[in-house]
Write a structure and sequence with these properties.
This protein is of the alpha/beta class. It has seven helices and eight strands. Strand 2 (70-74), helix 5 (101-109) and strand 3 (112-117) form a beta-alpha-beta unit.
Amino acid sequence: MKEMLDSDEVTSEDLLNFFTLRALTIGEKYCIAVDFMYDTALARARAIDLERKQLSPVQRAQQPRLYGIPMSIKETFIYKGTDSTLGQGSNCFKPKNETGFAVANLEEYGLIPFMKTNVPQSLLINETHNLIFGRTKNPYDPSRTSGGSSGGESAAVLARCAPIGFGADGGGSVRIPANMCGLVGMKPTARRTPNDGCI
């Protein structure tokens, strides 16, 4: 995707609209998305596109590999104006006042968060299901699970509703869904990345 952006074949706004449309249509069938930050993401994508136009080809090539790429984030990550329910009704309608460090750090790197994905209630099972949003299905076979607790993320990437997803893993919460959806999931060494901004 970076090559397509660098050559002006597509813009970040194009990518954002493409993946948002897929998430709203295909993603609905699998119960992937629980919230969208489209307006914020659109403004960010347009700003990045404008910045890119002012750069030389050499400067574009020096930008981070994922600069200007839309991404989905697990519902547990704190993002301004959205809930982080953890699949519990008691946490509904309590939007956060600011974006947490983990996602803000990704934004600084150039990624564009545009949707939050489903999680199991309390994040404590290896299947993504809660009574607020429902059960996330595996896009390979909707009769099967996409895993948990980052099952919304694995389903989003597998269904190509997001080019990259951001989850959290304490006891397999990225590795299990990645395995169940045939994806690559990466868990950094303990304490290599901060957990600030993730409930």
